[in-house]
Amino acid sequence: MQDITYVLSKLLWLPARPGTAALLLAILGLALMWRGRRWGRWPLLAGLGFYVALLALPLHQWVQLPLEERFPRPATEPAHIDGIVVLGGAVEQNLTEARGLPALNGAAERMTEPVALLRRHPEAKLLFTGGQGSLLHGGMTEADVARELWLSLGVPADRIILETAARNTHENAVLSLALAAPKPGETWLLVTSASHMPRSMGVFRHAGWQITPWPVNYRTGHTVAVWYDASFPVRLGEFEWGLKEWIGLLAYRLMGRTGAVFPAP
């Protein structure tokens, strides 16, 4: 059942993502008008209107801002950290396999922040959770890339724990909990993108792990400069990412993978 859910989530998102859906609407409207159907102007206007709104308004900021501010970092860093859990999603395993060098994407802070934490906390372990997150993939897992990257940055091999099978956030939580087996009273940090933290915390709590959020990779701010600095393709990508998180929150609640639609601190 989980395999079917995983495949469907990937396939349904391809036509449903806003950029694609708006383009398909515009093409449909244009084809209808070409054939003399005047009502075709409505899907055409809807499709083009989305792109105009994204260009004129900071929709990419508004959709992510509530997500990123839901779980702030602790005011002070814990004095003792037993472990750090890093969620996959920041590495590009296909590019790494093709070029032979660890490749990162726009969420690279997920991979660099834990290294800084390890240097301040020699007692901590570093657990990366991530297998194959895409339908089309090669032989490398995200965990393979994480190991290569962290070893090249000087992280001792005996401090790295790799979970290699997870394909989504639910599996990240369940499989990493079984692997880490945290003891009562231990302090573990959860490192992932700030906009992904609400869903992640909800899933980890539901799995039985009271973990401490340590968000990174912030993409929003409260100034006009931040709102309008990004190029149009970046705005589109950020809007789609934020909307996907909101859909994911609702879907995970309906599937019983989290205890709340919008988990709170």
UniProtKB/TrEMBL annotation:
UniProt keyword Magnesium present: no
Short name of one Pfam family: DUF218
Alphabetical UniProt keywords: Membrane, Transmembrane, Transmembrane helix
One GO biological process term: Gram-negative-bacterium-type cell wall biogenesis
Keyword Membrane: yes
Family annotation (PANTHER family): ENVELOPE BIOGENESIS FACTOR ELYC, INNER MEMBRANE PROTEIN, PROBABLE PERMEASE
Protein name: YdcF family protein
